[in-house]
C-alpha cells in the first residue's frame, strides 16, 4: 500500500533554493520526470494552462470589437463583419467549455488518487479550488456579456442570489448593496456591461493568471505525486517536456478550431425580444447550480445554496479532513465515496435541470433522490473495499 506523504506547512521553505534536484532539471523550477509523467491523465493541468493562454489571446482580439454601449449588436458585428470573427468568438466559447471540463477532470483525478497531500500539495489543492471557482465565475461573466435574454436572466439570478440567499441574510446589508453595485452599476446598459466587462477581463482573469502562476510554481516544487525515481530514470525537461507540452497544446487548439468551424456558435435572442413559450436554460456548467436553487421548495436559504457552500468548504479543506494513512482509492473509502457522490449529483442535477427547467420538485422526491445517490456511492465503495480485503485474506491463507 502506498503511504500518504506528510504536508509541509513551513511557508519560508518556498523561498529557499532547492537542493538535490532531479537530473535534467532547471533551478528556475522546471523539473524532469520519468516516463510515467507522460501519461495523458498527468497532463490535464498543462492543457488547462493552454486553454487559459488561448482565452487570453482570443479575448484580447474580441475586446477590440466589443462595445459595452451596445453589447448585442457588437457581438453580431463580430460574427458577421470581423474577419474570422465568428470562429474566434466560437472558439473562445468552446475553449471555455474545454477549460471547465478539464478543470473538473483535473480536480477529481487529484481527489481520487490522493494527490492533495504531501509537501506543498495541500496548498496547491486550495489554490486549485480557488482557480476552479474563478474559472466558473469568469465563464458566467463572459456568458452575460452578449446581452441575450438568457444572459440577462443570469444577471437577475445573480442579484437574487445576493439578496435572498443565505449569504444575503448573513452578510451585512451594506456589503450586499456594494457587491450588487459592483456587478450592475446604476442598472443602465452601459454601466452594467462596463462592470461585467471589467470583472471578466480585469479582475477575475487577472486573478486567475496570478494564482495559476503560484499553483504551477508549487507543482514544480512538489513534483509528481508518488513518483520516486531511481538515478538514470529521469527524462530531461528540455527539450522533451517542453516539446511535449507545446505539441499537445497545439493539438488541443487545433481540435477546438476544427470543432468551432464545424459547429459555429448561434447567437440567441436579444434581451427584450418576444419569445413566448420559451424558458431560459443556462449553459451545462451552470445547470447543476441552477437546478439546486429550486430543489424541494427549500428555497435559497435552506436548499441548494447551503448545500453548495457546505460542499465547497469540504472540498477546500479536504487535505486536512483526510486523515487516512494510505493513498489508495479503497484505502480512503468515505473520501472516495463522497467524490463519487458529487460526480453522480452533478450529472443528475445537469440532466434534471435540462429536462425540467424551473420546475420545483416535492421535498419527498428530492430527499429520495439525494439519499439514493448517497446509498449508491457509499455502499458501492465499501462493498468493493470489503471484497478486496476478503480477496487479500484468501490469498494469504
From TrEMBL:
InterPro entries: Cyt_b/b6_C, Cyt_b/b6_C_sf, Cyt_b/b6_N, Cytb/b6-like_sf, Di-haem_cyt_TM. Keywords: Electron transport, Heme, Iron, Membrane, Metal-binding, Transmembrane, Transmembrane helix, Transport. One of its GO terms (biological process) is respiratory electron transport chain. Residues 11-228 form the Cytochrome b/b6 N-terminal region profile domain. It is a multi-pass membrane protein. GO terms for molecular function: electron transfer activity; metal ion binding; oxidoreductase activity. GO terms for cellular component: membrane. It is found in: Membrane. Pfam families: Cytochrom_B_C, Cytochrom_B_N_2. It comes from the Archaea. The chain crosses the membrane at residues 47-66, 87-105, 125-146, 197-219, 240-263, 298-321, 333-355, 367-387. This is Cytochrome B subunit. It comes from Ferroplasma acidiphilum. The gene is soxC.
